[in-house]
Write a structure and sequence with these properties.
The radius of gyration is 21 Å and the shape is globular. The strands form three sheets. The chain has a six-stranded parallel β-sheet. A six-stranded parallel β-sheet has the order 9-8-7-10-11-12, with helices on both faces. Strands 13-14 form a two-stranded antiparallel sheet. It starts with a strand and ends in a 7-residue tail after the last helix. It has two domains: 159 residues, Rossmann fold (3-Layer(aba) Sandwich); 195 residues, Rossmann fold (3-Layer(aba) Sandwich), CATH 3.40.50.2000. With 379 residues, the protein is an alpha/beta fold.
C-alpha cells in the first residue's frame, strides 16, 4: 500500500459533471494504491445509479484513517467550509471562461496547491490573481466498459449526430441547432438527437426547453427542417454509454469546457467528435487526427441566465461561427473512411491518456511531492 493517506471531499453522489469527475478521481486514487476516506456533500436532488464508480466512493465514505492531505473538489467558493486544521489542502478546480469568479479565486487562494485539467484552466485561475502552485492533471474515465448494446431507434439508417449537455447559454445550443438545420435543410438521411437537462429537471423545465427549441426553429424560418429528437430522462452510467453507442457523431458548440466528459465518453465508445477547441480535453487533441475541433474567438459574455453570480460580463468565453459548424458537420457526414480513422485514433487517445490507471499514476506522482511538504523540515 502506498503510504500516503488522504481525505477526498466532493459531491460524488450528485447527478452532475462535478459528481462524475469526483467519482472518477476517487477511483483513480484508489487504483494508484492510495488509502482514502471520502466526504460526500450533496447539491442536487436527482437520484441515479452510478455503478461501480459510485460504489467505490461510498465504500470509502467516513472511513477512519490518519491523513495529512485533503483534496477539495467542490465549487471553490465553499472550499473554506471543508478545510481542516493542520491539513495540507489541494483544490481540484476546473472552469470554462477566461477567468474564474472572484469568490472562486478567494477559495482557491486558501489552498496549499491546486490541480486543474489544462493550460487554459490554469491561466483562468491565474487571471484572477491566484498565486498558489497549480498542477495539470487531466480528468479520468473508466475505460473498461465492456460490450455496449445500442438502443433501438426509429431512424437507424440516418447518419445520427447527437449532443449531450445541460441547456445553458454556455453550451450554445442555438448555434448547434441553427448550423444543423441550415446545413441539412435539403439533405435526407441525417438526424440530430439531443440529450439535455437542467438541474432539478421537472415537467415545467422540460417544457421550457422544448419552447426554446421551437423559438429557434421559428426564427430560422426554413422551408424544411431536418429531424430533431429529444431525450430528457435521467440515465445511469450504463445507459449513458448505450446512448453514445446508439448514435454516430457527438457534436458540441460549447463556449468553454472545464473538461468535456461527454466528449471523452463518445471517443471511448468509438465515435468521432466535433467540439469547440477551447479548454479541457481539447488541449490534448489534434484536429482531424483524433477529433474535429471547431475554431473560436474569445468574446465577452453578452447574456447568461444560469449561475449569474459566477458568469459575469467581464469574463470572456469561446464563440464559434455557424458557418464553421456547418462545414464540420457536412465534412464528417460525407467522409466515412476519414471519420472512422479519426474515431479510432480518438479512442486510443482516451485509453492511453485518461484511463483511471493513467490518471491515478499522475496523481500519485504529484502527491509524493505534496506529501513531502507535510513533513517537518530540518532547519
Amino acid at each position: 500500500m502506498f503510504p500516503i493517506k488522504l481525505k477526498y471531499c466532493g459531491p460524488a453522489k450528485d447527478y452532475s459533471g462535478y459528481g462524475e469527475a469526483n467519482r472518477h478521481d476517487i477511483a483513480a486514487l484508489v487504483s494508484a494504491g492510495i488509502e482514502i476516506t471520502t466526504q460526500l456533500p450533496q447539491y442536487t436532488m436527482e437520484v441515479a445509479d452510478f455503478g461501480a464508480l459510485g460504489d467505490v466512493a461510498l465504500k470509502h465514505e467516513g472511513k477512519q484513517i490518519g491523513y495529512k492531505i485533503k483534496i477539495l473538489h467542490t465549487t471553490p467558493n465553499v472550499f473554506g467550509n471543508y478545510m481542516e486544521h493542520d491539513k495540507y489542502h489541494i483544490g481540484r478546480l476546473f472552469w470554462e471562461t477566461d477567468k474564474i469568479p472572484l469568490d472562486f479565486a478567494q477559495g482557491a487562494q486558501m489552498m496549499d496547491e491546486l490541480w486543474t485539467g489544462s493550460e487554459y484552466n490554469k491561466k483562468a485561475i491565474q487571471n484572477c490573481g491566484v498565486t498558489k502552485p497549480i498542477y495539470i492533471i487531466p480528468e479520468a474515465i473508466d475505460t473498461k466498459i465492456g460490450e455496449i448494446r445500442p438502443y433501438v431507434v426509429d431512424y437507424p439508417n440516418d447518419y445520427k449526430f447527437y449532443s449531450i449537455f445541460e441547456w445553458t447559454e454556455r453550451k450554445n445550443p442555438g448555434a448547434l441547432l441553427e448550423a444543423y438545420w441550415r446545413e441539412f435543410e435539403n439533405t435526407e438521411g441525417v438526424s440530430l438527437t439531443l440529450k439535455t437537462y437542467v438541474d432539478n429537471f421537472g415537467p415545467e423545465k422540460k417544457d421550457e426547453v422544448k419552447q426554446n427549441i421551437r423559438l429557434i426553429k421559428k426564427k430560422l424560418n426554413l422551408k424544411r427542417y431536418a429531424p430533431l429528437y429529444l431525450f430528457t430522462q435521467l440515465m445511469d452510467r450504463h445507459q449513458i454509454y448505450r446512448f453514445h453507442k446508439t448514435f454516430d457523431c457527438l457534436i458540441s458548440t460549447h463556449r468553454g469546457e472545464g473538461w468535456g466528459i461527454p466528449q471523452m465518453e463518445a471517443m471511448l465508445t468509438g465515435n468521432p467528435v466535433i467540439s469547440t477547441a477551447c479548454g479541457g480535453i481539447h488541449e490534448y487533441l489534434t484536429d482531424k487526427k483524433d477529433a474535429y475541433l471547431l475554431p473560436f474567438t474569445l468574446a465577452h459574455l453578452k447574456e447568461n441566465t444560469r449561475n449569474r453570480q459566477w458568469y459575469t460580463m467581464d469574463q470572456k468565453w469561446a464563440e464559434v461561427k455557424v458557418e464553421d459548424v456547418r462545414a464540420a458537420m457536412r465534412y464528417v457526414f460525407e467522409h466515412k473512411a476519414e471519420r472512422e480513422a479519426v474515431a479510432k485514433a480518438g479512442q486510443e487517445t482516451v485509453k492511453r491518456e485518461f484511463s483511471i490507471e493513467a490518471v491515478g499514476i499522475k496523481m500519485r506522482d504529484r502527491l509524493k511531492e505534496s506529501y513531502k511538504l507535510t513533513e517537518p523540515q530540518l532547519i
